[in-house]
Amino acid sequence: MIANPSNGQELPVGAAASSPTGDDSKAAASLAPSMERGDQTSIMSLRAIVKVYPGVNALKGVDLDVFKSEVHALIGENGAGKSTLLKIACGAIARTAGEVKLEGQKVEFEHPSAARTAGVVAVYQELTIIPALSAMANVFLGREHRKWGFLRRNAMLEEYSELQRQLDVNIDPDRPAGLLSIADQQSLEIMRGLAVDAKILILDEPTASIGLHEREALYSIVRKLRSRGVAILLISHDLDEVLELSDHITVLRDGLKAASRKREQWTKQSLVDAMLGDRRSSAIIIHHKPPPSQQEKLLEASDIDVPGKVQGVSFNVGRGEIVGIAGLVGSRRTELLRAIVGMEPGSSGKLRVKGKDAGWPTSPRAARKVGIALAPEDRKHQGLVLSLASYANVTLPNPWKASRAGLLFARREIARARPLTEQLGLQKGALRREARTLSGGNQQKLVLAKWLGMKMDVLLVDEPTRGVDVGAKQELFKVLDDLAKSGVGVVIVSSELEEVMDNSDRVLVMSRGRLIGEVEGRKTSKDEVVQMIFAAEPESAREHS
Prior knowledge:
Number of helices: 18
CATH topology of the largest domain: Rossmann fold
CATH architecture of the largest domain: 3-Layer(aba) Sandwich
CATH class of the largest domain: Alpha Beta
Shape: globular
Distance between the termini: 38 Å
CATH superfamily of the largest domain: P-loop containing nucleotide triphosphate hydrolases
Number of strands: 26
């Protein structure tokens, strides 16, 4: 049940989540409560927004209002329509129907640059910083200060310093942006928006790739901007973050607005209920049964070294076991996994797979030959070919299994991919769409589906739930649990310590490229692991965690 913001009564969570199509889609907006707040006029108003892709009705008539000096959170499961609505608001994609108004005037943004000029600035999870350019050059990209064709460096430095003062950050203007932390790169994107007098700042999963200290710095920036009158539209799967930062929260479900009300009227549980709707009663709860202590060792890795990163790490993974790896940002968990599959130049070590010596892999292909695969952290650039159809990504590791007489046919590839993606809850219509058009959670499902079909002995999974909603997280961990039950050895790296502890039989604890301890996953408290990590970290590392 959810509260009716107009009278305090409760309504069924699914009341606003019917699935209209065609001409009925515009009427769907009236099902959700109005977001007008007193006599205040919204800066941006989206009305009856519809977006149709081939085979998928992504948005079915959504209303949204964004107000001055407000943090408005937009949440929902992957595939609910959040990113699609965001991209329509900032001109990245065209809507099928509906209208967008900015300060009461209808607008048609043909490109994000037009939206930016009008004061609508989006900072995406995948940042648009140009690594080779300096920090200041990125801020003024496309609007450099010039006189008679010459750059006015002093004028830009003066404005750059003022923008830093407004955000209370300190970033060397001449430092190449590619050498900055993700948090500093985000600050540059926000400074770029302020330089064009942003009225609305759209933040898409802003804390997915940064540590705790950097999150607090970003929260401070958000609050400063709100106090200056900027409207913030926040998309996040971190419900604690949403409840801490937001003034108003809107939940999308299945392309419709399921609920929208003030932050004080929400709890974490009511947010989950609104996101899942009728599925909330059947949410998956993982109760992994640990394998016997004397199970076969599928992977024995010893003396792993990556120059300047990983030093002398040894561990093993048993058949049917889920092993988690915990550590702060910079503990080199990702580099450890990459080394095992031959992706870290200069790495060395010893591997035994199913009791037999295996040569140290020099490429992911060599690792796959001995039964080891990696679902990488960077799914967009390392896990998928975004321009290919979803089904082609699933069959990519071995497309010839879906071939006939040496020829590939889409029908046969789809037939092979469908049962693999159905295990992960991917919508049928998504298989024919390009991978780039899917939500982050659905892209992650494609990455896992690839390896479900290859039947690896050991699966390494790096940040499987980054940018993934509550429901999809449960589905993903259910799949990993099923893999373990089938006899696969699974290794999980996640920045969410609770996920590692709750879903692992054993947890390896890393600090600065070294293995500093090992604990039982479900029998050890999060606080014990945090204390272990911080006891091993220098003060400088703690500050950036």
